[in-house]
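Provenance

Sequences were taken from public entries as deposited. Structures were produced by running a predictor on each sequence independently, with no templates supplied. The record for Type III pantothenate kinase from Palleronia pelagia is shown for reference.
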Amino acid sequence: MLLAIDCGNTNTVFSIFDGESFIATWRTSTEWQRTADQYYVWLRTLMSLNKIDVAIDEVIVSSTVPRVVFNLRVLCNRYFDCRPYVVGKPDCLLPVDVRVDSGTQVGPDRLVNTVGGFDLHGPDLIVVDFGTATTFDVVGRDGAYVGGVISPGVNLSLQALHDAAAALPLVDVTKPAQVVGKNTVDCMQSGIFWGYVGLINGVVERIKDERARPMKVIGTGGLAPLFQQGDALFDVFEDNLTMHGLVVIHRHNKEMGN
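Predicted structure for Type III pantothenate kinase:
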């Protein structure tokens, strides 16, 4: 039984994979101070509440927060009696090449999305992920990660507006009824929503022009369905792309005898 852990800057997702499908998925806030014991009590409580009685014996981790990895390793060693695969570490093999400048460290979440996207949809992809940052990852003809774009995330931009301008409140991210707002909240919501629609369309078109070939656009992340309402931004939305990528990477390592 495989436990896949995706640790982002804001949230951490735990999913249990039985070899065919995910039987449970839970989300918690990312806190580097959380101990292995706390993770285990939290996870076991949720498993018990959902009447899931399985023995976890394999774990794979993707973490954009390096300080979290140590306690996740302890969790695996102490409670699951296994050594986890950690994406981005030398002992975790990838089924695709990474073609970036020498010395560049690519975020593990971006590598996992590349693997998941290629496995589901083949080559020549642009994966747009709405997280703490909004990222665009380019998958080449042979499935290799060949680079991308990083821009500020939606909620990060809203927080920055609120922090820098005392008169601007924190607002929810939603599609406004019209572009031109009649009050401060409507104006901010319009700026964020249509501003990001324009950002996504613009960056995607420039990537396609630069690559000079047809490319499929994959949307993922919590806010992707919302922004799909604004325009035909994505060819397909994949809610479980990162978790699928983790399963593919785990399977690749087992097949390679790693």
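The two ends are 17 Å apart (CA to CA).
The longest strand covers residues 22-29.
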